[in-house]
Structure of NmrA-like domain-containing protein:
Amino acid sequence: MVELAIAGGSGQVAREIIDALLATGNHNITILTRNDTPANHDLPGVRWRVVNYNDQNLLVEALREIHTLLSFIQPLSDPEGKIQKTLIDAAIAAGVKRFVPSEYGSAGTIDMPWWSGKERTREYLRQVNTKSKQKVLEYVLFQPGLFLDYLAFPYKTSKHIDPLQSIFDFQSCRAIVVDGHEDAIMTLTSARDVAALVARAVDYQGRWPEVGGISGNRMSVAQIIATGQGIRGRPFTIEKVRLEDLEAGVLKTSWALGKRHHSISEEQANNVATTVSIGILLSSSKGAWDVSTELNQLFPEYEFDDMEGFLARVWDGKS
């Protein structure tokens, strides 16, 4: 049995992956929490340990005997990456062998300021290993692109991850695209596949790749829209935006993302919706969502959810 610790274990992505890890029966899992009564305290087969993420000494004690530490610290709550830096330092001091930072999205972070902490964490992980003659902490960046489940909005297709609207609105048969960048590539992977591949990677005995791309479906923006039109049986209304407007922070569309992420307050919602729409459009046009395939290659026998089949089942019989 491998000793695992989970930081930020109450989040939706964390819950999906914890379920997959528990299903293997291969791990003793300790969830680090800031709260005496965590929201998911009823999880069978896990231990809970209250920690202060700002106290490195206490974190070191909590991580003694831990082999692998997975972080699900929400980047929006740690924009400078300070919590994850403290976790990394504590993990090294405690003798943790493997670390997984909070990623689970795009490969690049360009034009997505809400993920600025990710880039700081990536750089810090590179630094701690280059300062030593040998690798002091093995790590992997799990990058699955966009959750395929979001294209099922408003229908829930996973146990824990809530529906979230994207620039591809299958419900209303519409999409927002950057004019002239319809060939931009995006990767879409279901939550089920992400959790399954992460669980396999945690069990993997060989050396982790530093970048762990998980590519369920790799498609151009135009192909995603064409797939949606075929599934929904009608043409999509396409609103095209200019790159220069987006670069200036202007979104000239009749609609934007409406459903807010659970980590965003109602007061922040309007501004964040515009910022996220602009950021995803800009970053996709620059290749940020075209993730690599390291975990596909590591587990070639795994069969991913096909986008067309997955969404056809969701939208079958719906007007």
Observations:
- The chain has two domains: 2-139, 146-187+217-288+306-315.
- DSSP finds ten helices and 14 strands in the chain.
- The mean pLDDT is 93.
- The first strand starts at residue 2 and ends at 7.
